[in-house]
Amino acid sequence: MSYLYELAARIETSTLGVAIAESHFAYPAIEGVHLIGLAISVGLIFLIDLRLMGLLLTRLPLEDVVRQLRRWVLGGFAATFVSGLLLFWSSAARMLESPAFAFKMLFILLAGLNALWFELVIARRHAPPALKVGLPFAFRCAGFASLTLWTLTLVCGRLIPYIPQWPGFGTSP
After folding, report:
1. Where are the beta strands (DSSP E) in the chain?
2. Out of 16, 63, 76, 152, which residue is the most buried by the measure of CB atoms under 10 Å away?
3. What is the pLDDT along the chain (173 residues), one digit of tens a residue?
4. What are phi and psi of 57, to 5 degrees?
5. Burial group, residue 106, by CB count within 10 angstroms (0-12, 13-18, 19+)
6. How far apart (Å, rounded) are the C-alpha atoms in residues 161 and 4?
7. How far apart are CA 127 and CA 171, in angstroms?
């Protein structure tokens, strides 16, 4: 853990890390891009998840909903990923101390695995039924898991400033 912490401290104190952290405009602008990317990607994923669960857009075929939203979701993720990396760069060591950040990363990983499982296994095993027919139970479960994991990711992201260190964790060297 100390090697990882030392690497994070070097990243944070790099020229780019310091420039972002100390800029009056860079950090807020990057954070704004991060939030817009989240709103687009996760907001649209919520629409897809609610469709998978049979709670929204039930008159539209699932394939049409996913096809229409996929490029926007991926674009939002690209903006979120790049801006998130830059935000991490400016406070890497502090992020490693935060349990909220660790759980956020865990939930992102689990949400990604859920999406991968859905795309590679569930969607291939069960062809989506025609319009106005309920989706298979596996689709509903995948939608519920995604909705839950992305909600937990957002909550943990918001908790990072409020839970800056693991309980009992000393100040960083």
Report:
1. none
2. 76
3. 689 989 999 999 999 999 999 999 999 999 999 999 999 999 999 999 999 999 999 899 888 999 999 999 999 999 999 999 999 999 999 999 999 999 999 999 999 999 999 999 998 887 665 545 678 899 999 999 999 999 999 999 999 999 988 876 655 44
4. 55, 35
5. middle
6. 21
7. 53
Q: Which residue has the tokens 């596996």?
A: 138
108, 153 Cβ separation under 8 angstroms:
yes
pTM of the model: 0.89
- Note every long-range contact of 150-157, with CB atoms under 8 Å and residues 24 or more positions apart, other chains counting: 150/42, 150/45, 150/46, 150/49, 150/107, 150/111, 152/103, 152/107, 153/42, 153/104, 153/107, 153/108, 153/111, 154/38, 154/42, 156/100, 156/101, 156/103, 156/104, 156/107, 157/100, 157/104
In the structure, how many helices (H) and strands (E) does the chain have?
8, 0
**CB-based contacts of 34, cutoff 8 Å, min separation 6:** 79, 80, 83, 84, 87
Q: Strand, helix or coil at 160?
A: coil
